[in-house]
Structures are given as structure tokens and as C-alpha cells.
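Problem: given the chain below (832 residues), write out its structure.
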Amino acid sequence: MLAVPAASAAQPDAAAAGASTLDTVLVTGSRSSTRTVKNSSTPIDVISAQDLAASGQATLLEALQRTLPSLSQVGGYQSDQESLIRGYQLRNLSPGYTLVLVNGKRRNASAYVSGANGGGFPGHSWADLGLIPVAAIDHVEVLRDGASAIYGSDAIAGVINVILRSQASGGGASIESGQSFDGDGSRTTARANLGLPWGGDGFVNLSAEGSRQHSAIRPRTYADGYLSYPAVDADGNLVALGTYNSLPAGAGVHPAEAGRDARANQIYSSTDYALKSLALNAGHGLGENADFYVTATASDRTASAIQNFRLPATIFGTYDAPGVLAVWPDGFSPVLETKEQQYTGSAGVKGLLGGWDYDFSVTWNRDTIRTYTNDSANFSLDYPGAPTDFYDGKVDYRQLIDNLDLRRSFDIARLASPLDLSLGLEYQHEQYRRAPGQWESYTGYGAAAFVGYAPADAVDATRNSKAAYVGASANLTRRWFLDAAARREDHSDFGDVSTGRLSTRFDFNDAFGVRATVSNGFHAPGLGAQYYQVTGNCPCGTTLVARVDSAAARTLGASDLKPEKARNYSVGFTLDPARDFHAALDLYQIDIRNQLGQSSQIGYNALDPDNVTDYNGTPLSAAQQATIDALLAGAGISILDGEAYYVSYFTNIGDTRTRGLELTLEGGRDTRWGRLRWNYAANVGKTDITRVREVPAVLQGLPNIDLLTESSEYALRHRTPKYTQVAGIGWNRGPWALNLDFTYHGPIKRLTNGYKYQLAPVLVTNIGGSYDFGGGWSADLGVNNLFDKRTRKVPERYRSASDRASYTSTYEYGDVLGTVGGYWYGRINYRF
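Solution.
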């Protein structure tokens, strides 16, 4: 990313805008504090506040995704809560495998668990980068390598370390506004930062940010022959429609059909949200050999997403709910809403004692998400008078971490540099709660679009873990650096895990070096995954995602979730032939054992007792039906004629191998026309499945029982493009600055309705510029996605018969592109 804007509220110094990050001293990926981007033994990207501001993106996640080809935001439309709490993939892996730190301290994962309601990463949670205020950020360090031996769970793919501002004076403010080329999706963002002295040697840095994003409406269009209203017979009575909402014999078209809204289904529209966030970073001396520090962030976000339109014909024919039809005669669009509060904070003391550098800290994190379904109905209730807005329940995650780091350097004659020795102890306490919603949200069919949490699904669980770790690094010779680390963790629920890491670098000369790392890591099954249980109901039947330790799951072959374990291998080459040029090529392999996933749906559909089928519509024999009945009976579940019931659970599904290549180039030069900077980066990655776990013995012999279906395999392997490239050029001279950058997304494999095909590569272009008026005032103007690239459509030949009969076209929900398209923005900044 080549941002070279004028100084803004997010920038400490205009002169720094053109400075290289190659010599930035790193705090991520090593206990040593003497490494930089140039001489790091692992691949690390440093993204400055200037880069983030110049991207014109609303959140940290969106800015990083535009900057780093190895980090892909999950694009296109995502179902239910995943459209509001966006995931991201580092090196083509689940967001649950990327650890997020703030000033080197662990930031908690979201209380949300990806699961049954359209979730793309079963059993995983991740830190929500969209909640970290950009105004508070000095720079971001992204380690693209495994680091569990240093930081513990989650650091399989890498680490994102957000470094907060620490200026003791000055500050600034900015206000930004923009909208899509279509004239909707407007966003206004205000940011402010203030640095204050604290005594003679301390600082207090305060940041505030507020953003209001309106939805960009992107409706689907119903096909001309697809009716929206129930038919009418000769006596004026309503009649259910036929197959694909066709007109049944002997009935007429409903008079309201002439005025129907063919674009009523707006589910693919972008999300609407209001976000407020605050940040504090402060430090103060405690005498000559000690310092006190504290960091804190607080975020409040209300976000909503439009769900599938409920046609009046569906209300009448499928649900047989005339009372609901009386309230919603023209149908309705449920809106899923989340209200989320996140609070994080760390306080500690660091200094020098007995020759040791020490850092003792306490970190407390909490994330609470309340979910609502608005403008909806529960088809099982009598209307009017029943609710149209529902409180669906709450999930709450809390985390307390006590940490002691010790570090000391020893001069050893045989070594070319002092030996940096580090030791540490850590204690972590976690708590996860899920509380039920109002009874109308889960009773019967539950709230349409998102069924509320039932009392049977409520949970209050805790876990404790203890860790000890050690590390040592030194230059064995002037040009050979070695860094080793080991860690052991003991968890109260699943036992011990040991990890290690060995990283080395050899510089043949001042311009060319080779680096390599081998490590193992792990991802602990979250409390939310271990205690996840959700019950859903509709006319098609009941679906239960059972808690893995419940009677229903155990009788169907479930076992305790195991930690996902990884082995990381990487080797890289760096080239610095000139002061203003840097190149790096890194190859990596990540093997993951016991990947989390979801079992097949076990049960059957007896709505038609003469044609009993499984979840996929495959007819079952009487013996197979009897086997399922016997299994479910062990959990107290019986399926009666005229009912359908399916049970699944989270489980470890098998092993994967991800291999890839990353290339980064960066350079710049001063000319008589001004300062030029350029960069290029690329990531090529591929994931293969190396082992699929056997189906539990009690389920063998049943049809369509697989731990990894072809569809879920595609989701695991091909969610991101085969390759991504980013390139840009920036120029600044005096008060003027311009930047142009490109993102080239490679092909994406898709599996739709049994058809396999590829989305073609696509190029996204962004342009921006700024002018410094002097006196602290500056302005930025830019266009993201200049040529209006947006979510593509499923080729006509790959659409199902039902989809072709229902809609004129269908969006590729898994496309890396979003639905908004081109977007312009302007920003006014004041710095003092």
C-alpha cells in the first residue's frame, strides 16, 4: 500500500508520510527488541497510520485487506451474523488461526461463534478488527508465520499486532464522508486524537472515533412468471400457488400481483451500522527503573442486515398463517440486528530489577453481543398482537490474563552478539455465557430469519489455563542469527499442549540474506465451540446443532473436541541492493491436524410417511430408519410421522496442508519532480486435504454421512483466490500528494448446484490525493474501486431450476468482491 497523503488526524507528522518502514524496530514475533523489517528472521509487514488513512476504508480490517495480499477479507455476502462480524483469512486459513494483539497484549476473540446459521468456519471465533479505532493506531505489524511458542493459542497463520499512538503532545481531527457510485451506501466518519503530557516523563494519548454507514441496497429481481401473492379461486378465496410459485389450475391471479415489488428481496445489500469507539494509551515513570502503563479501548456497534423477503404467497401457502398475512399483506423483510459492546484493557509495570528487564501486566477483555430480529413474525403465534420485533438472546465472552515477562542479555565470548534470554509465566481465565431470548423468539417456528436462543441452549462455562515459556536469541556469528522459543500450556478442560519454534537468518552480505523458521502451534477449541448448541424450527423440520458433550451428540458418535495442531515450515530470501529498495521472497507450508468442522445432519424427514428421506432427500430403507430411531432414542428424541428432525455437532474432521509463496518489493527515489514510492506484493496459496477422519462407527452404513462433503471441502480449500497481487505508486511534492494502487484477485473455484467452475480474475483500481493548506489544515479526496467492480453473478447454466424460476439472476455470494461497487470519499483534516 502506497499511501502518501497530507498529514491528518491519524498522522503524527507530515514529514513521516514518505518515510520507509524498513528500519522500524519490531516488537512482534520475537522477544528480542533489536530486529527490524530488513533483518527480521520472519516475514513481517509494517503498515503505518498514513497507509491506513490513505486507504479511505471504514475499518482497520478493510484497510489491511487492501494493503496485504496474504490477508483476504471474506468477500461477498455472508449469512446472518457473519455479515455483521466479518471474517478474514491470513494465508488462506480460518480467521481463528490469526492472533490479534494490541501493544503486544492479547485481544480477545469475539463472543460470536461461526456455526449453524450460515457460518463459514464451524466452531471458530476471531478478534473483530472492525472494532479497533483507526484514529488510535500508530502502526500495525503483521507477522506472516506461526508463533504459538511465543504467544500461545491462535497464532497458527500469524499475528496482527496493533501499536497505539504514544505522543505526549499535539493531535488532530478529521471528518470524512462518501458514498457509492449508485448514490447509496453513504458513510460519515469522524476521528480525533489528542496527546497530553503526564508529569515530566509520561504521556496520555486519547482517541475517539465515530462512523455511520448506511446500507447500499442491491435487490434481487423476481422472474416475471414467479408470483408473489397467493392465487384466488372463483369464489374469491385464497389458494396456495403451485410449483415454483406458478398459478394452479382453476385459479386466478391475485389483484395485488399487478402492483407487486419485483425487487423486494434485498438480502444482498450491504450492512448498515453505527460505530463509536474510544482508546487510551498512557505511561508514566515510577522512579528511575520502572514505568507504569495502561491501554484501553471501548467500542459500541449497532449493525443490521436485511434478510430474505417473506412473500405473501409463502406466508399463506407454506406456513398457513393468515394472521401474519393480515399484519404483512404484502410480505416482509426481516432485519437481523446486533448490538455489540467490546471493552479491552491492559495495565502493567515494566522496568529493571536485579539486571532483568521485567514486564508484569493484567489484561481484561469482554465482548457482549445481543441479537434482535426486527420487522418479522413467528409463524407459530396468533397475529395481530404478537411481536414483530424479537430479542433473540445474548452471548458474552470474558477473558482475564496475568502475564510476567523477564528478559536479560548475557555477554558470551563465543557469540557475536549478547544472548537475549527471555522467560515468562501466564495465567488465563475465560468465561462464556449464552442467555436465551424472549420466549416468542424461539417457541414454535421461532422468529423468521433468526430463531432465538432457547433456554435449553443456554450455557455458562469457564476455563483456566497456565503457561510457561522460554526463549533465547543471538548472533552466532556476525551474519548468522538464531532465535529459539518453547512454551507449555496446561488447560483445565483438555490438558497440556507443548509448542516450539526455531528461527534463523544468515546474511551472506549486507544486501542478501536467507531466513527460515520451523515451528508447531495449536488452536484451542473455544468455550463457545465446546458449549455451542442451537435449535432451529421451520415447516421443513427441526435442526439441532447439539453440544458436543450432550446426550444427543454422544449417542451419535461425538467425542471431545481436540486442539487443532499445526506444523509450520518457511524459508525466505531478502535482497536490499540499495538504500531505497527491498525485496523478499518467502515460501511456506502449514500442516494442520484435527481441523474443526461440523458433522453431517443425522435424522430423517417423515413429513410424508410413505417417502421417508434423509437430510439430502435420499430415500431411507426401513432398516436405516430404524437405526436412526434407535440412536436418537438414546437421547430421548423420537421422530413421529409428519415430522422431520436432524441433529449435527461440531467435531474434528481431518487434516489439511497449505502451501504458498509470498513476494514483496518496495522502493522509492527522489526526483526533481518530487518523491516517488512504489511497491508490489503477491501471494499464491493452495490448501489440500491430507486426511479425513473416519465416520463414527455408530453412523456407518447410513447414506450421506460424511465429515467432509464436497461442498464443505470447497469452502475449506477455495474460499480465497488462487493468488492475489497488489501494486501501487505514490508521489508527493510540497503540499501535494497522489497515490494509485491496484489489487488483482486471481481466479476463485466455485461449486454451485453440483457444477464446478471458476470466477475469472479481476482488477480493482483505487486512486487518491491530498493537499496541505498549511496551518494544520489538509484535505484528501479519493475513489475506491474506480471502475465499479462488484459481486459477479452465477453463470446461467449453473443455476438450479428453482433459482431460474424464481429470480432473473443470482449473485456469487462467495465472490471476493462486495456488492457496493465504486465509492468516492472526501476528508478534511486538522492537525495541531
